[in-house]
Design goal:
2 domains; 50% helix; globular
Length: 683
Amino acid sequence: MKRFLGILLAIMLLLAQGIVPAAAGTPAIPDGRWLNSDLDSNVSEDIPADPKDNFALYVNKDWILRTSIPDGNFFTDAFTETEQVVNDRLVSLLRRTDLQGHDAELVHKLYVLLSDWDYRNALGTEPAMPVMEAVAGLDGIDAILAYMMENSFYRHSIPLNLGVIPDPMDTSVNIINVAVPVNMLMMSDSAEYTERTEAGKMDYDMNRNVGLYMLQLLGYGEEEANAVFENALAFETVLAKSIRPNSDHYSADYLASSLNYCTEEELAELAGDFPIIDLIAAYGLPGGKRFLVDEPDYIASLKNVYTEKNAGLIRDWILFRTAVSFRALLDYKTLQETTGLANEVYGITGTVSDDMIVVQSVKAMLSVPLDNLYIQNYCTEKQRNDILEMVGGLLEAYHGILNSADWLSEDARAKAVEKLDHIKVNAIWPGEDEDWGAGLDFAGVEENGTLASALSEIRNYIIAKQAETIGQPVNRYSWDRREMPSYSINAYYEPSLNTIYIMAGICAGVFYDEEMSEAQVLGGLGAIIGHEISHAFDIEGAQLDQDGNYSDWWTEEDYAAFLNRAEKLSAWFDGFIPYEGCVYSGELVWSEAIADMTGMKCALAVAAQKENFDYDAFFRQFARIWRCKANLSAIIMFATDVHPYNYLRINATLAQFDEFIDFYGVRPGDGMYLAPEDRLSVW
């Protein structure tokens, strides 16, 4: 359940590489079944709300009508509401001066750098100018390659997405992953460069508007700035030709097709004249003997892209990205102006508070030290033990789901049960304290430091920490809190480690408190945890064994039966029309939809064991945790997310189950009714 939007604001503020929505026509009711109650303008007082027709609307109508989308946002939901609770706690930690230790020193130093606007305003554009001048002076492909080799600050000049991950074929050891830089493209999908969608048009507008502002701020005339942008776009168009579109990533065979291994010599041969091994070392990840390459065709294309002919385009691409990267690192006016330009595209009114700007930036830059402070001040052993006890009950209930899957052979069932019994659980915070930032330091305000230099030091340190793990054994109980700190409003399943993570942040707000009834806890947080367990057996999880290794543990007949069931679910979701003109993709959301339905089945199995269970409180809580109010831009953006729309997560899930149908007396002809033969729960 790694939510696509969970870190959107931090990315917008810090890296300015947000994914933007598109404007479109009037929302519609898909096949006459459910009004999209997530869309703000769809819900009014006179709209009827009946639990038998649209349960999402029935439970959440009053909340939608009385709730306003916060300033500076284009939607609100249970996650963003709970994030506000956690952010308020984090702000209080940032303001405290009595906290002791290196973590507190790092966090406070960064907090002062971020929040001292007088200091930042006095610096103005000064921190950006040396870097911009260095890039502008690059003349020819040799100079560009030398810059990429020598420059450790703006690693985004390297057209690769590099990291260290558990080897999918042997998850006991770490390996360097050489991936395509989709996150570096203005438009987040390579398909947008050949056939631009409405969302792609908005990507274009946002990046162009912000990029031109930053280039002109940093000394370029309007005509020059436009030329730099057009060259950057032209270069990305060339890169995109060899990058697989996002739609490929959701197909059942994508994982197998992305498992391509190279020795150092083979990778160098694949890249040809493009100096990939030297670049990986310059990035900070030397010493790899074996590499996982997601898309070899892209790597092979680079030698034909990084040529003297394209040198001007490449330089301007680096120049454009460098200018945009400074938008949140300079003075207050620059941040406000560029945020306003982005907000205009998103249809966002108002701005977030200065406190939220600062806390989101600290979260993005120093997540682990900040997380250590959060754990020390807001997490308890009781909370942790309560969650572990709940997880144990849900894992036990999942045995019944596997044992009742009559389409599964006994051999595949035994392997599935073995995988279930090997699932590891990390709850609330890691089992051991992590002195993550012991070797990290940077200059603060008192040392005349800048945000740009602090970010450089932090990035260097993060990559150096990754480099230490190359070829080393994987700690299966480790917790990558840089990517997913404990304060995150999230729970997720990591397929490569066969491990579930339940973060402290999601044990707050509407999701969990000690005053909730057993039925409420099970219908909300319990269903979420059941959802995460089921990812061990979704489209990707079904291809990995009990240790997270890629393994064909299914019989051919079993896997065909599994895919047949999943494809029926995908086809059903294809038929929904969340807004007029939307071509919804069931294949995009099928793994998350499978998890939603199986998580509910798991929670219902636990509920069935309890006397006098309050099913009304249970189902209402499930609807509450997925409540959402969004403007049209956000609704269109959600069409590119791997999670179904929230109103579908509620209605499409609950319509599958007898317990819901029977409790509310749903009958044929009602919006929430699905005949037994039409129900689509995969497990």
